[in-house]
């Protein structure tokens, strides 16, 4: 991959000049000037309708951003990604979550070996295992079928599975899913307190199998379990997903109960692998396959579509435009379905762990902004929480609105109300309400002129707030697969343009190291050398 400093490209310089010219762009005016704007800036693909016309861009912005992608050698980079090159250079690994959803006949090589046969072998194992648990053929230690599944993992070994199982709740079977992630003992105790060990299956998910949280929670759960069941029952109730088979065996889980994954799958991109075992248990293997199929279709779209019509590319370029030119600090993602309530949290890891980097691919400190900060909550709840700040605050917050044409429970009345809000919000964010409109409205309510004058400034909405609308036919395993892959590819495009490595996460290491040292001190009741703030707090914590 070519290591191009984006700020040194021709396109960047042109974008800077272009930004200076259009930073005061008035979207309402743009819509008036160009009746074809919405059509020109909408992408229709499969069951996705992506309207990005309500963004602070012109056709020229779009063209210059595409030039930037070309100068950053995005096409070459996409080929390197799909081709299995070791693009995660600092860890010496390929990045092949796309291989996990590729078709069997594809050949994807890592170190000269086609990984597809292994991928399909593990998929077969997932399929058979899920079938036996779901049908009740596989029994617990007292001969009863399983009723509950506990996923023990953190980060990518938790957020993907929990987000997807909650998102696809509508499709789920009788198995009750639980998630333990935090090392906080109250989390694990809350989860296990009502579980019946005879009918509960534990899935320990850890790519490294060295993560403190997951090992502590698994140890606590195994202790609880063996206090209620014979020791040899562990083999029937515990399975693991990991690339560190040796460590799993040392933990006491037998080889046949281990679902392998590989170092070429990043944790935050791993839900497509055996890390998705709890997803597959919850919705059945066929639905899990449909999720993968959706992602595969998005992969093909991303790989084969011209940048001008490429959804992940266009949406990634918009984030660059806001981050680096408008200097927007954050981006909101608002799903208009309660099912996607964990989607923003999932994206926070995917996006911020990937692109929160301050050193470029040449090892040099970066002088421009990277790593967009994402946050959000489902609509309409968020409208009654933080939307005030987006509408009338001082910050520019581009927002993605994700909605569905059809509701799953066919609640037409509710769905119309939900979607009326969905459309109304992006319209309100665009249009705003000016002084004349406010004044007219208050006059219509019979308010005196003096009162109107006093209230007026508070009632004005400046509008011109950028939004992107992703409208999907309905929330299915397949459409969810496409949506997740869409954001995954956005992350990749951002990383290429920012000239950073998106697939390592060294920044999480220091905290882990210090926590290990501090834990030793706490356990030894002996506070070592720290800054005075930390020392004082540790002493306070250790006091009776
Ligand atoms: O699956 P593991 O190895 O337990 O790691 C869990 C998580 O910890 C991290 O390594 C760091 O937070 C994530 O990237 C990863 O998803």
UniProtKB/TrEMBL annotation:
Keyword hit for Cytoplasm: yes
Top-level taxonomic group: Bacteria
SUPFAM superfamilies xref list: SIS domain
Enzyme class: isomerase
Pathway noted in the entry: Carbohydrate biosynthesis; gluconeogenesis; Carbohydrate degradation; glycolysis; D-glyceraldehyde 3-phosphate and glycerone phosphate from D-glucose: step 2/4
Segments passing through the bilayer: none
Catalytic residues as annotated in Swiss-Prot or TrEMBL: 353, 384, 512
Subcellular location: Cytoplasm
Molecular functions per Gene Ontology: glucose-6-phosphate isomerase activity
Keywords: Cytoplasm, Gluconeogenesis, Glycolysis, Isomerase
Pfam families: PGI
Enzyme Commission (EC) number: 5.3.1.9
Catalytic activity: alpha-D-glucose 6-phosphate = beta-D-fructose 6-phosphate
Keyword Thylakoid in annotation: no
Major localization class: cytoplasm
Function in brief: Catalyzes the reversible isomerization of glucose-6-phosphate to fructose-6-phosphate.
HAMAP family: G6P_isomerase
Protein family: Belongs to the GPI family.
Name of this protein: Glucose-6-phosphate isomerase
Gene: pgi
